[in-house]
## 1
Amino acid sequence: MTDSRTSSTGKRRGRAMLIMAVCALMWSIGGIFIKLISWSPLLIAGTRSLIAAAIIGLYMLVTKTPFKLRGYSVGAGIGLSCSCMFFVMANKLTTAANAIVLQYAAPVFILIMTSLIFKQKLHRKEIITVAITMAGIILFFFDQLSPGNIIGNIFGILAGVFLALMFVMTGQARNDDSIRMSGILIAHCLTAIVGIPLGIPGTSSVNGEEIFFLIILGVFQLGIPYVLYAIASGDCPPLACSLIGMLEPLFNPVWVALFIGEMPGGFALAGSLIIICAVTWWCINESRSAPEDSC
């Protein structure tokens, strides 16, 4: 009986990890299509979030996940909404590699936020992680010093800061999946409400191909992956989710390089390697010290 239960648990975990890998790979296609759409960044962000919100709302309806308008879900929604908008703006102004890796520095911003807001003392390994990651971020600014790229890098950092805010808010709600899913739905609704009206004046033309690319972003890069993440997170350990999620910053610039020919500079590549290694190291150590916590 024990062996059967263990085998069943192992199969569920393996399936969840596979779903999480598919989810991360689907997230990673964002850079390609954002680059291929000529619309203003806010219109891209707002329209893809409108499509994603419909899919996530339908999933919550089918699974009977209650919508909770609470302080933590609203805070998470604001954080993720701002992250989505800054991420698209960063993709338009700097390389896709810079945008995604700077956003993925979010765990370090989580450490800083919990220290400043909740007065949690940073331990030595956390201080080391913050210092190494910040050093990696600085390298991005040695690469392409045109005003647009500098602003794009700053937007990438802000995307990471607001993504960290989302994680901090959902973390305070503990393991309440309805708070997390409600926050995601609020985020995409807010992004649509803000992005579409503000983005329309900055968009000069719309064609069928770009609408098709936008549908791909809304359905396959945001909507379905968030549903897959919700399914996977039930059986996939937090550390595995975090590490498998690293496929996104690894593959995002690869797709852009293959299909568009955009290559990050040498300093940015070095910074990317430093940030990904530092965040991975911290996630592993955090899991060992507190297996039940998510990084």
## 2
Amino acid sequence: MNNIQNLFISIVQTPALLVGILAVIGLILQKKKATQIIQGGIKTFAGFLILTGGAGILVKSLDPFAKMFQFALNVQGVVPSNEAVVAIALVQYGSTTALIMFVGMLVNIALARFTKFKYIFLTGQAMLYVSCLTAVILISAGLGRSFFTIILGGIFEGTLLTVTPALCQPYMRDITGSDSVAMGHTGNIGYAISGWFGEHFGNKAHSTEEIDVPKSLSFLRDSIVSITIVMSIVYIILSLMAGQEFVEKNLSNGTNYFVYSIIQAGTFAAGFAVVLQGVRMILAEIVPAFQGIAMKIVPNSKPALDVPIIFPYAPNAVLLGFFISFIVGTISMFIMVALHTVVIIPGVVGHFFCGAAAAIYGNAKGGRRGAIIGAIINGLLISWLPLFILPVLGNLSLASSTFADTDYLIPGILLGTLGSAGKFAVIAGIFGFVALVCIISSMMKKSQKAA
């Protein structure tokens, strides 16, 4: 049993392997030649490894950014980091988390098959983290580690991961120019809200990607060049704030702090370039392969993929969103210090990935102004909502880290609030959530038939 559980966890924690297997299944269902099946499976697998490798490079280059920032401002508090808080939680909730995740995957496929929400969530680590959050809240609410808790948690997770891509899809069509791929990230609720604000308060006529650049500066149109220059300036300013002694003693292993800053900026740009290559490979392989699954198992379904999948469509918005979101988080931190609340220190990784995506969504229907508004809105959400999720996390609330993205924070706060009202309240809330999704799906089917 332990070996099977370990194998399952290992597969779903490795999105490249999970999606590679699904690509192979899709090609087999289309009765492709063996050579095409092998090629499609390997290229999808390799593409995801390239994408996650690039994301890893980005995260690694942002680590000294965060350390210099905290040292320069001398602030202590809670740092939102999904990876950190889940690593702590899995020690105590690991088995329940794995089983909830398995049930959640089955619920996701079933809902995609029988409702109008045709999205198969394929971001493995996100599924694991949502399962972990669900396990923590349900057990903290007094439901224990029973079989019923696992089923209940799986129903909640599977339903959540089915409907959140649907919230984003109207904006994904504008971002990607097609309806063949969906967003499978745990910032989906925030992205949809950012897109809505961008659409209603922005101006689509002026995109972030159409910023006028003088001919003498035309080289800045190359995203890798512009990212390297901008990030170099930011790293140099931060290293000056932190001080030469701190950087060279604690971060650079003696390398000159100025040189170290430029290297980190270049590393960040290199990670971005790797992500772009991975995205190209994935889209070239997974969408055609997924048609086999869509035709046979879940008709008209779409793969919901991780957030870097949209970065190539608006690289200017990526940088804009990151900086605006991080600034919002920093200002929010100082307000918390003044209010004497728990201090949420802006997590650089969360503000980069979620801030970038929020700006892309805001830009999709609201142009530059929409991108700025979207990044501000999402920045406020991920800065202030962690204050409200801490009380519902049981003994995990004492950790120095917490969940970072809106799809943990908003559903987690709601589920935790129900849990604090008693077992029956949380059970009724979860089944009510599923019923609401089914009712909305039924209404969508009727309106489609009427049309």
## 3
Amino acid sequence: MKQDHPDLSVRRQCSLLSLARSSLYYHPRGESAENLAFMEIIDRQFLETPWYGSRQMARHMRRDGHECGRHRVRRLMRLMRLVPIYQEPKTSKKHPEHKIYPYLLRHLNITRPNQVWCADISYIPMRRGFLYLVAIMDWHSRKVLSWRLSNSMDAGFCVEALKEALDKFGTPEIFNSDQGSQFTSTDFTDVLRDAKVKISMDGRGRWIDNRMIERLWRSLKYECVYLNAFETGSEARNGIGAWLTYYNEKRPHSSHGLLTPAEAYDTQNQYLKAAA
């Protein structure tokens, strides 16, 4: 009996399960070993000093004995989506043809789950490359509602994460993001518009609104990513997934005393439903 080629078999399984092949096949993006080492150094330092631009970062590296000029630092920082907060508060590059939505959170008191969701993308270093991670977070509870890994910066993995969050947790009143091309793409904003969600985007001077996700990235990298040096995409997916489950369900968040993000989200959601 003739057997299917392994790749064809996987394709059929993906079709039956409605999975994107990229979620099974993604491989870390490659750079030279030297550049990967420089990128990890830059990433660690940027977590400590997020105001460092390429010039200051290059000086820091030279002081530590690393021969990495400013032009290379600037290219690597762009590849990693690292933008110094004092220089340009927007956290990613805008697309000139995409619509930019107004910022809706000014003077807004965020007091309950599903009032505001937010999203961000981070660079994830690996032993032989790197991936990008997007997370959808409930602003009030700090619960990570969904996430996806990708080896490219197209909008597809962000759309997948958004759809999963909407399917599992309903719709927020407002969705806030930076002005990055992934979040301003029509593929992404059409999902929000179809769900009747108000779209908000950070403007100049509003980089601070990403602070809760920046804290998430810092904890994730120091407590999981840097300790494991993942070899493959599947290893990264399993390791990051386990840590995010711990973050949501086991780790009390400073914003809510002894409650974990999941407890803060579920407890207040149940109270609001009972009051309604």
